[in-house]
Write a structure and sequence with these properties.
The chain is of the alpha/beta class and 552 residues long. It folds into 4 domains: 182 residues, FAD/NAD(P)-binding domain (3-Layer(bba) Sandwich), CATH 3.50.50.60; 113 residues, 3-Layer(bba) Sandwich (FAD/NAD(P)-binding domain), CATH 3.50.50.60; 113 residues, FAD/NAD(P)-binding domain (3-Layer(bba) Sandwich); 89 residues, Oxidized Rhodanese, domain 1 (3-Layer(aba) Sandwich), CATH 3.40.250.10. Helix content is 27%, strand content 24%. It contains 16 helices and 31 strands. The strands form 9 sheets. A 5-stranded parallel beta sheet has the order 5-2-1-9-19. It has a 5-stranded antiparallel beta sheet with strand order 22-23-26-25-24, with helices on both faces. A 5-stranded parallel beta sheet has the order 27-31-30-28-29. α6 links the parallel β12 and β13. The longest helix has 15 residues.
Length: 552
């Protein structure tokens, strides 16, 4: 009979324990959880704080008694493992309820300690609260119920923007402080401007590009000298792998600071496994070590460990980093690498932007979205995708993330037979359209220029032709662009300048048609990828002003 001790519950630990029981009825499985709750929906915590999830019990998935009744798991909450003795294969345990200490022997040990919030050593940091578990949300809920006059969230990552949204739902004026010049770092600058606009629209004040320097009794001070009133301060600048026990036990720690594991999630000690946010994963694109604190991959890797202990065949699962977040009326999702990371790694890529509707435009209720596809120009493989918009973003990113996992190339997205009816999509789905665009660009049929190259294009003296209608151009256009509507190009050929021509429209579709026409007419024409909409949402041209980005 195997004796297995699991340190830490929630996603990874409980996924392992339940799967292990289904594979081995005779194993003795003991789960040690430091907090008072072993199985809960931690991704739902911000929405409980905001009142969207009304009952605390809705967050509790399982209890020690329910887990024992169904799986015969020995779950011990409010209990902490103090140390691991690898030689004797025992763990030293402290029961917080009565103060008793004892040891447990094991045949296999599974580490699932999670990650801890990063708390920089700054004056006043002890006044801040964070959100990682049920105990944290109870504290925050009590403070929010007292309705503080204002709140400041330090950090503009996924948890930070979710916290800002839910505090705003409670009627608490909220600000976000982010040391970088944007929130949600997985997105590229021209994509994140939509989120900045949505946050400002909903009343959240943004303080971007300056780090926190001090927290006083009723304010936070930034490195640039700005001081913000703050009755409630929430620290959400990220998490670090919790590796204290692993380090003390002499287990190998990887280059990113997480527990180092092999493809079976074994640590440097073959009788000890590790899973979840504390563990370094292998990046699906380049095989490098990666920290990916996501629940779905923790659940999947917990199952991998159980299968390996039980002697089942294992499929290696590398981390793609597919994630999604809601920010008021927007959905934001991504998978793979972004442009910033590709440039930093010196990798070649092709970027494609599109701005489709969620379903057929003639059916009521269609909502806009913006998609960005990143493609390896040699292999034509998809290496990253980002989406921002209303309904339908999640579906498109999930389809493309699946295509990435399956090795479907960017042009092959055009071949996918996706469910279509007017309330749900278009005959040419936004995913299919990305495939068509990729095929056109990669084959050289329609060469494109990126929004970031427009200024250089202008400074080099090359012309820009805006092929939208006069009324559209009146609503905003690229300076120096010459307006020749697409339907007038043939008869106004004499007005076209010689040499290179950059063509722009609203989103790139008419620009593609006009570019093809001009090239057939002998001109060296290029289409502005993503059109005026992409260019106008780039950092230098976004409707969100510098003043709004620094909280004014």
């Amino acid at each position: 009979m195997r004796k297995i001790v699991v340190i830490g519950g929630v996603a990874g630990g409980m996924s392992f324990a339940a799967r292990m029981r289904r594979l081995d009825e005779t194993a003795e499985i003991i789960v040690i959880e430091k907090s008072g709750f072993v199985s809960y929906a931690n991704c739902g915590l911000p929405y409980y704080l905001g009142g969207v999830i009304e009952k605390e019990e809705s967050l509790l998935l399982q209890t020690p008694s329910s887990l024992f009744k169904r799986f015969r798991l020995d779950v011990r909450v409010d209990t902490e493992v103090l140390s691991i003795d690898r030689t004797s294969k025992t763990v030293a345990v402290l029961n917080h309820a009565d103060g008793s200490k004892y040891s447990i022997d094991f045949d296999y040990l599974v580490l699932s300690p999670g990650a801890a919030p990063i708390r920089p050593s700054l004056p006043g940091i002890e006044r801040t609260l964070s959100l990682r578990n049920i105990e944290d949300v109870k504290k925050l809920f009590q403070v929010a119920t007292d309705h503080p006059k204002n709140a400041v969230v330090i950090g503009g990552g996924f948890i930070g923007v979710e916290m800002a949204e839910n505090l705003t739902h409670r009627g608490i004026p909220t600000s976000i402080v982010e040391a970088q010049d944007q929130v949600l770092m997985p997105l590229d600058p021209e994509m994140v401007s939509f989120i900045h606009a949505e946050l400002v629209k909903k009343g959240v004040r943004l303080y971007l590009g300056s780090a926190l320097s001090e927290i006083t009794a009723n304010s936070v001070k930034l490195a640039n000298g700005v001081e913000i009133e703050a009755e409630l301060v929430i620290m959400a600048i990220g998490v670090r792998p919790e590796v204290t026990l692993a380090k003390a036990a002499g287990l190998a720690i990887g280059e990113r600071g997480g527990i180092k594991v092999d493809e079976y999630h074994r640590t440097s000690d073959p009788s000890i496994y590790a899973v979840g946010d504390a563990v370094e994963k292998k990046d699906a694109l380049d095989g490098s070590a990666a920290l990916v604190p996501l629940a779905n991959i923790a659940n999947r890797h917990g199952r991998v460990i159980a299968d390996h202990i039980a002697g089942k065949n294992i499929r290696r699962i590398d981390a793609q980093g597919t994630a999604i977040v809601k920010v008021f009326d927007l959905t934001i999702a991504s998978s793979g690498w972004n442009e910033k990371r590709l440039k930093a790694a010196g990798r070649e890529f092709l970027a494609i932007h599109s701005h489709p509707a969620s379903h057929a435009g003639y059916y009521p209720g269609a909502q806009g979205m913006s998609l960005k596809l990143l493609v390896d120009p040699t292999s034509e493989k998809i290496i990253g995708v980002q989406g921002v918009g209303g309904e339908g973003v999640d579906k498109r990113i999930d389809v493309i993330a699946t295509a990435m996992r399956g090795g479907i190339t960017a042009p092959e997205l055009a071949d996918l037979e996706l469910a279509y009816a007017p309330p749900y999509g278009s005959a040419k789905d936004p995913v299919n359209m990305l495939g068509y665009i990729a095929e056109n660009v990669l084959s050289g049929i329609t060469p494109t220029i990126q929004w970031s190259a427009v200024d250089e294009w202008i400074s080099d003296g090359f012309p820009i032709i805006d092929v939208r209608s006069e009324s559209e151009v009146a609503g905003g256009s690229i300076p120096v662009a010459i307006n020749i509507p697409i339907d007038d190009i043939r008869q106004r050929k004499a007005e076209l300048p010689l040499g290179k021509i950059l063509v722009t429209c609203q989103v790139g579709q008419r620009g593609h048609a006009a570019t093809r026409l001009l090239r057939e007419m002998g001109y060296d024409a290029y289409n502005l990828d993503g059109g005026y909409m992409t260019w106008s949402n780039s950092p230098a041209h976004s409707k969100i002003t510098h003043e709004q980005k620094v909280g004014k």
